[in-house]
Amino acid sequence: MRESLFGIHIIVKDEAEMLPQCLESIQGADEIIVVDTGSTDDSPILAGSYGAKVVKTLWQDSFSEPRNEALRHANTEWILYLDADERLVSNLNAVRELLQTTNAEAFTVLIDNKLGPNPEDCLKHRAIRIFRNGRGYQFTGRIHEDIGQSIVDKCGSSFIKDSPIRIDHYGYLPQIITPKNKVVRNKELLKKELAEEPNHPFYLYNMGITYCQEGHLEDAKAFMNKALIHTPDVAPYRATLIRDLSKIMLELHEVQQAETILRKELLIYPDYSDLSYLLGESLKMQGLFEASLEAYQRATEHHNDGYVMEVGINSYRAFNKMAQTALLLGHLEDAARWFHKALLVHNTYVPALHGIAEAFRQLNVPDKEISILLQGIVRPQSSDDYAILTEALFDVGAFQEVVDSIPEAQLTVPRLLFRYATALMQCGNYADADQILYRFASITETEDIERLFYLRSICQWEQEGRLREEFVAEIPDFIRGPLTDLDRCLLEDTQSTEKSVKFRHLSECIQKVIREAVSLHCLYTASRLAKLKPEYLVLYAKELYYLGKTLQSADILLDIFHQNRNDEEIMFMIGELLFDKGHYMQAAEIFETSIENGDENPKTRTGVALCYLHLAAANITEAISLEPDTQTLLNDLKKIAESIRLLNRSSWHTAWVGFRRRIHDEETSHLHVHDC
Length: 676
What we know:
- The protein is of the alpha/beta class.
- It is 60% helix and 9% strand.
- The protein is built from 34 helices and nine strands.
- The N and C termini lie far apart (91 Å).
């Protein structure tokens, strides 16, 4: 019997940046073996400084080779293997306790794959990482090297147990995976494997993942479909293959195909929460909201950590989706309750915070009470907490509550400073906003210095109609010219050709300021800029529309239409305005004209289909009034009504949320659109 209980094996190549945190997490292990496959950085020196035995070998286009090389140098009863971009989270004593009293041959561990900076940016899965030494087990495969099959071949799967040991994996973070070009490397290794075994399902599946990482979804789907044909029903990765294939189908908007495969596979994996969640997504995308609620609910009923699973998919993510669906159905109390359930699990989950604020806003809860509710949920301490809190308040138009919620000490944080200033501007308090931005610029530096001076300029244009001389002197050189030229342009009274040529170089600056000004409800400045040139008026009209100012934008849009200065976006807006007023024939003509001119937007086609369905419903209703006992017509009317209901759920229509919803609701109560 070996004296040392367990050792830890790592393979590296140029991992000096990540290796220290890995080695730090395993200090105290009985043995550490690091196999270096050709580093040109300090990886071998670092490994030695942490007490590791460093073995050097040549890279042979196979991850199994260095893993097996480490086994030849092992002197412990058990082996736990890691990558340099991983960290052992569990205490080493917990590993020892697990291994001292067991008849197992191997253990799986829980791996948290970090995908981003937030707690929800994580994918969990189990993998065999601990196994007995001296049994002749060997790794196989050039890539995604596997020890499990060797163990199963020698002693069966019953001697492989699950463990509570946890590992964090950072290798999928964008800032790590991109510089190392791992996707290209993996693709080349997979090509070699598939050249030898063209129908190997595991490598076909992983080639699909690689194409997905490159953004080539059709290729990814093709490889995964082929993998599915050849994958045995008992393959441990089969359920994950179904999950990933379904996600790709949804990305490609193949929602009915995704629904079909998910319903079939849920009979095999009824406790796989990700599949239930994805079924909910496919149903929601088809407008089947009630059925999607049931699928999301099923996702919350299972907690099997044996599957690859997105963090929160069986709790706060699913509750949040249920709440969002309830909002779409107009079930506001249910929505608020489910958003709250999501936040009880993850109190800074941004979609749920914005959702609960929106639900209570639609329930006419006063802004002050919404602010108190959100503060009680978030319990802000850090600048990130305050940013999350105030962005949710800002989005529902609780601008004064944003100002009241940010402590003075937090106003040195750029993200919060901009939020504070823009909330003041939304309240019409331009003097204080300008002063806050001035104070900030004088005490710190920000990467977004251009936006800071744009905002200050808007404040002064809104207050005084021009820029102050002392302010102009403060503007950095690289934007002083455009802003001062723009200021002079606004002060001129004519729209001459000479001025148009003179200020042509300001086009990008003007467009940025118009967008910023409209979004902050600074319409005096935006409208002045819009008058400088017809193309700016078009931009102004569009931005007004998206702000919810449909009444104010309607006349401008119609003028643009009659002057034949349309684009697809304007045509859609006009069609939508006519549709909302019930002018279905005119709306259909607008949508059809846009399609004839090359508009390929599926929303336009949905709009024209709905117009004709409404016209058909009106004709049938009239026919029924003449012959009320005609059952065929009644059945036809019922089918048309169901089609209208489902198409209206397809997200074809512009959606206004938060404070834009407030503006739009006020506008639509007295919107008047002339017939085109």
